[in-house]
Amino acid sequence: AQSVTQLGSHVSVSEGALVLLRCNYSSSVPPYLFWYVQYPNQGLQLLLKYTSAATLVKGINGFEAEFKKSETSFHLTKPSAHMSDAAEYFCAVSDNNDMRFGAGTRLTVKP
Amino acid sequence: DTGVSQNPRHKITKRGQNVTFRCDPISEHNRLYWYRQTLGQGPEFLTYFQNEAQLEKSRLLSDRFSAERPKGSFSTLEIQRTEQGDSAMYLCASSLSSLNEQFFGPGTRLTVL
């Protein structure tokens, strides 16, 4: 069965600092991997997705993620954090049928 | 197109009552998904439809939960005899096909007193 593990339920960075949110996956088939962001009282918004093309995926709002098969990882990064990046971030893995989400990482950005 | 919509946005009910939530997907999307999200957790998959066919329902939480998509457009999720443990955010998503991005609605927050 497929699953994802997000390391760190809460990450705090200073404005302008590097953002690194960790995600490791488990899948018996080549995975499709996603990062979603959720702002308070809102639904989830897709940041980026990996579908077996380029291993470095660029998304919206300056985020990117790198698929590393050898490490079964799909970590999310952004070179410089903005205050508006404060939100909950979810990593997810999908096959043809359902999507499995991690428990989420809450990102706090300090001024 | 205004995206996925869900109604109501909030529902407060007493234990033992039945509740029904509605989801209107993006119009050309064939797939529709239901998730439950509890505080501090990621969305938990419940069920999904391909057009009007419900292709997976084994992950519905109990037989008190049921979902329909009678004409392949909007969908409803019903919870019968609600319990306090059913309090959560219920999210709906739709996609064009199985491997496309899922677009999420804003959710329905259920509180069972």
Key terms:
heterodimer; A: mainly beta; six-stranded mixed sheet; 11 strands; globular; B: about 110 residues; mainly beta; four-stranded antiparallel sheet
Task: Report on this structure.
The complex is a heterodimer of chains A (111) and B (113). Chain A has no helices and eleven strands. In chain A, strands 2, 4, 5, 9, 10 and 11 form a six-stranded mixed beta sheet that branches. Chain A has a five-stranded antiparallel beta sheet with strand order 1-3-8-7-6, with no helix packed on it. Chain A starts with a strand and ends with a strand. Chain A has 111 residues and is an all-beta fold. With 113 residues, chain B is mainly β. Chain B starts with a strand and ends with a strand. The chains are: A mainly beta (111), B mainly beta (113). Chains A and B meet through strand 4, strand 5, strand 9 and strand 10 of A and strand 5 and strand 10 of B.
Task: Kindly summarize this structure in a few lines.
The complex is a heterodimer of chains A (about 110) and B (about 110). Chain A is an all-beta fold.
Strand content of chain A: over 45%
Count the DSSP helices of chain A.
Answer: 0
What are the low-pLDDT stretches of chain B, counting only 5+ consecutive residues below 50?
none
Question: What does the radius of gyration of chain B come to?
Answer: 13 Å
Shape of chain A: globular
What is the terminal-to-terminal distance of chain A?
41 Å
SS class of chain A: mainly beta
The total beta strand count of chain B reads: 11
What is the multimeric organization of the chains shown? heterodimer
Q: Identify the most extensive interface between protein chains.
A: A-B, 24 and 23 residues
Topology at a glance:
The complex is a heterodimer of chains A (111) and B (113).
Chain A: E1 3-7, E2 10-14, E3 19-26, E4 32-38, E5 44-50, E6 56-58, E7 64-68, E8 73-78, E9 87-94, E10 99-101, E11 105-110
Parallel strand pairs in A: 2-11
Antiparallel strand pairs in A: 1-3, 3-8, 4-5, 4-9, 6-7, 7-8, 9-10, 9-11
Chain B: E1 5-7, E2 10-13, E3 19-24, E4 31-37, E5 44-50, E6 53-56, E7 65-68, E8 75-79, E9 88-95, E10 103-104, E11 108-112
Parallel strand pairs in B: 2-11
Antiparallel strand pairs in B: 1-3, 3-8, 4-5, 4-9, 5-6, 7-8, 9-10, 9-11
